[in-house]
Amino acid sequence: MKREVPMVLALVFAIIRIGFELLQPMIAWEFAPGKTVFTRLSFSLTFMSVMGLLMGLINLSRQHINTIRRKREHWVYSVWLLIVLYGYAIIGLIWGPDSNTFIWIYDALIVPLDSTMFSMLAFFIASAAYRAFRIRNVESTILLVVAFIVMLGNVSIGEMIWSSEAWLGGFKGIKDWILSVPNTAHARALSIGIFLGAYAAAIRVFLGLDKKYLGGTD
Amino acid sequence: MTFWEKMNAMDPRWIFLGMAVLLTIPVLFPLGLAITIDQETTVPIYNWIENLNPGDIVFADVSYSGGSAGELGPQHKAWFRHCMLKGVKVVWVAQWNTGAQLGYEFCLEVVEDLAEEGIEVEYGVDWVYVGWKAGGTTMWRNMQLDFWDACAKEDWVGNSFEDLPLMQRVKKWDKETCKGIMLFTAGSPGVPTYTTYFHDYDIYLGDVAVQVPGNMNLLRAGQIKGMLCGLPGAAQYEILLGRPGQAVKLMDAQSLGHLWIIVLVILGNIGFYITRKSGTPSG
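Above: the input entities. Below: the structure tokens describing the complete assembly.
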């Protein structure tokens, strides 16, 4: 029963959800004036996602408390993580998310740290390009040429070297063609492949062929 | 040790220093390199706002955080400025919790800039910032059916929808109310929410450069109608608005940054071949 009940529930709710999305009359079913059954069902998903957040918080805390207890390598970072995690939450709960303190921490710490992490990429890309981007075979040569064209086609200096009004539309013209034709062809093929895979995985869950979400090994 | 062997063994800090110098100088002393307006990606977004009537409502989404604010911040500000100048009403939502406050602050910056120029924009009448709401993608599905209920009838700063005149016109997120959607995105959740649930709307993207190749197929298929591509997209929009700003200034830095990477790749390959020929192992 422990396995059968969740499997049946998954199938029933999958059918209900698909029905609501595909059959227009179902979407308008009302249980009270202006309140549709579909909206209520969707709110249950909202509730679940919020519960998921709570589960994540509990799981993360347990994992890091364990690390601290057993004094595993870098356990000090776990202490710091818990202080920041709960400290920020407590500030938000006591003074509210609109309070100056809460917003100051966001503006003065979170945003600059986030920006710094992202901007460091420019430096690492430059270093990695110098050390690892080598022309060893035909494939790497194509990759290099395409990278140069796309990089120059995106910036003003590329326009200065080979103008978009010149032959072949300059770097920009070739870059646009690369993005619009070969890139689009591969991206679309990839998307279709991913979505077909996702559908197959979802159907396996709904039909009870994939039971990993119930725990265990099969 | 030959020159090329020394080059191959160069301390990466020199590369970092070169990059830092090349990114900083043009910010302090702009070079004024020409910027070409992209007719296929940027212009459709500009034309969309230009062709709307004052009072029309559009929706916009903040699906980014501080990490991509360098690219999407200038896009956000330029586009919002355009809407306010044209009298187009904007309802902002945010799929990313981490960026919701930042998006709100960008809007306030635009409003302050306009006020300094003598253009008054009123919160609740000209724009509303609903911000982030818990519940993920399904929440956006609920917004289509009952916007007020889904958003708990409250905006980002705690104002009741009852007190915001613009929200009296936005009971549902439907095609009668919404004349298009502008999504500023840096990842997931982002575009699929709209291409799945809002596929029959006119969707426009403000995208980080790294995502542009991945979303180009949507533009070709007509699933999105226009796209601001990274910092160049923001700079082009600023030029279309006739008010070059932060993005235009930063474009020179980006040009030199790209050039630096190209020079490094070329030098790295020359060194690689020369040292390989002479039999010295290299990168």
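Note for the figure: The longest strand of chain A covers residues 30-32.
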